[in-house]
Amino acid sequence: MNVLITGASGGIGSVTAARFLSLGFDVYGLDTAPAALTDARYRHTVCDIRKPKALPELPRIHILFNNAGAQNSEDDIGNNLTGAINVTERYAFANPAIKSVLFNASASAISGQEFPLYAAAKAGLIGYMKNAAIRLAKTGATCNAICLGGVYTKLNDPVMNAPGLWERIMAVTPLKKWTSPEEVADWVVFLTVTNRSMSGQALLIDNGEHDLNDAFVWPE
Predict the structure, then answer these.
(1) How far is CA 81 from CA 42, 122, 124, 127, in A?
(2) In the CATH scheme, what is the homologous superfamily, with its name and number, of domain 2-212?
(3) CB-CB contact of 67 with 13 (8 Å)
(4) How far apart are CA 143 and CA 88, in angstroms?
């Protein structure tokens, strides 16, 4: 089966792509950066998913993981919401082969914390996911979102490398840890391959931070 992953060049995207490759899938990656993986079953296209005409011709996609995004960028709406809509409309709809679509949203979509446009874009992603789930249900495809709290990636270096800020984060995180990209890949595979009955859901994966504490820590 063919898997398409956006934001495939680093962090969660590259780890998840490697996981699917290890399971025998053919993987297609889209990113504004060059490929991070070298594998005969991995094909990479450098493109800006905010621009529909930039999206490449691909074979029929069975699994789509909308992972690409940016935090506190010049265009959080475009990077986190518009791009995901463009990719989903292009590769998931009018495609009888599609089996599952998954969006990488954020705990911010539920809590409203972090940066204003980022939180708005991620909340919009959940709304679009539910709309897509309704339309895709006619084909039997599932469509869900993961709402991640802190993940150990370079994007979060500003707080992971600041002892004082990290202590404040752990003080409001009941499980006293963040999530690794490898664990995120476990969730992605489960939700897109194993799961065949849950659709239209946004799963909060944040080590208990939102339900028991509501605090966002970032440098001033």
Answers:
(1) 25, 7, 7, 10
(2) NAD(P)-binding Rossmann-like Domain (3.40.50.720)
(3) yes
(4) 11
Question: Cβ(180)–Cβ(216) under 8 Å?
Answer: no
**Are the C-beta atoms of residues 109 and 147 closer than 8 Å to each other?**
yes
Confirm if 152 and 207 have CB atoms less than 8 A apart.
Answer: no
Q: Which residues contact 200 (CB under 8 A, 6 or more apart)?
A: 129, 130, 133, 134, 143, 144
pLDDT in tens, 122-155: 999 999 999 999 999 999 999 999 999 989 988 8
Number of CB atoms found within 10 A of residue 56's CB: 12
| SS3 category, 208 | coil
Other beta carbons within 10 angstroms of residue 176's beta carbon come to 10
Place of tokens 């005969």: 40
- Cα of first residue to Cα of last residue in the chain, in angstroms, is 46
Domain boundary assignment for the chain: 2-212
Residue indicated by tokens 């069975």: 62
143-202 pLDDT, tens digit per residue, is 999 999 989 988 889 999 999 999 999 988 889 999 999 999 999 999 999 999 999 999
Q: pLDDT tens across 70-115, in order?
A: 988 999 999 999 999 999 999 999 899 999 999 999 999 998 988 9
